[in-house]
Write a structure and sequence with these properties.
With about 300 residues, the protein is an alpha/beta fold. The protein has 15 helices and 13 strands. The protein binds 1,3-dihydroxyacetonephosphate (13P) and iron/sulfur cluster. Iron/sulfur cluster binds near residues 87, 88, 114 and 263. Iron/sulfur cluster (SF4) binds near residues 86, 114 and 262.
Length: about 300
């Protein structure tokens, strides 16, 4: 089957089987085209909590599918490509953070949503890149332990000067690889372009940006801007999606290091195979994990409103 035929089959199957397809904006374009909802981690987690279908198929990475299951435990949730994990989420486990917490008993533990369900069970509140500043500002406690991303954490700390934020040494190996040299090169090649970056980039790179925000934040900024040229400092898919949305503007990739292999692992065939019962993985979490992890996601949704 070619791409168009496969997309038609997927649309038929999802209707027949009452499946809602969620796709993070970092996945391939042909998948985003057949998804019911696309967007950043925060938008997808809210969409997931409101979905009416009995089945949810996540095209993204494992922590996103787990978040759907936590928010909709009565639904059947599938991850289209079982090997799609997140290198950052896999950096810190529950046992390690439980030990770290003993050293910071008076701190509120703020977990980036890019964490495992198991780790979320011992955290107080979740954040996404688009909601982190607002949520941290709303937390009453001044003392915050922010995990796992020290770059997003440093960005939040700069925006929330009243808070005392303790960071650990975690982060996204994809975004954190982008260097000041990469930025200088891109700016030299495209002197009239605005630089838009994700806060998972290192502070030195963020400091050179015209705008810092989540994947949706970057997309909205570029679409609404009067400017015509943009260097995109996040996963390369975003530059491609923007080029389709705004054909009269030009979007440049900041660095070829910005390719997330986990987000690129899901193919249109994986989606088709999962819907046909030949692939994918059903996300199964025990009831206690769901109850405990849900508290910090509910707190994120409450403070994010
Ligand atoms: P967003 O929160 O912007 O969707 O980012 C998710 C992610 O994995 C970034 O690397
Ligand atoms: Fe995880 Fe980084 Fe990939 Fe986002 S880009 S899914 S944080 S490894």
């Amino acid at each position: 089957m070619n791409v168009a035929q496969l997309q038609t089959e997927i649309l038929k199957l999802k209707q027949e089987k009452d499946v809602c397809i969620l796709a993070h904006s970092y996945v391939a374009r042909e998948i985003c085209e057949i998804a019911d909802f696309t967007g950043d981690s925060y938008k997808l987690s809210v969409d997931a909590s409101r979905v009416k279908n009995q089945n949810i198929l996540m095209c993204g990475v494992r922590f996103m599918a787990e978040t759907c299951k936590i928010l909709s435990p009565e639904k059947t949730v599938y991850l289209a490509q079982p090997i799609a994990g997140c290198a950052m989420a896999d950096q810190m486990d529950r046992e390690t953070i439980a030990q770290v917490k003993e050293h910071y008993p008076d701190h509120t533990v703020v977990a980036y949503i890019n964490t495992t369900a198991s780790l979320k069970t011992i955290c107080d509140v979740c954040v996404t890149s688009s909601s982190a500043v607002q949520i941290v500002n709303k937390i009453e406690n001044k003392d915050i332990l922010f995990i796992p991303d020290c770059n997003l954490g440093a960005y939040v700390a700069a925006q929330c000067p009243d808070k005392n934020i303790k960071l650990l040494n975690g982060g996204c190996p994809i975004h954190a690889c982008v260097s000041v040299e990469d930025v200088k090169r891109a700016k030299q090649q495209h002197p009239d372009a605005l630089l838009l970056v994700h806060p998972e980039c290192v502070p030195e790179v963020c400091a050179m940006a015209d705008y810092i925000g989540s994947t949706s934040g970057i997309m909205n900024f570029a679409m609404q801007s009067d400017k015509k040229e943009f260097i995109i400092g996040t996963e390369i898919s975003i530059a491609e999606h923007l080029q389709y949305s705004c054909p009269d503007k030009d979007f440049y990739i900041l660095s070829l290091k910005l390719i997330c292999p986990n987000m690129k692992a899901t193919t249109l065939y994986d989606v088709y195979n999962c819907l046909s019962g030949k692939g994918g993985e059903e996300i199964l979490l025990d009831a206690q994990t769901i109850t405990d992890a849900k508290k910090c996601i509910d707190e994120m949704i409450r403070l994010g409103e």
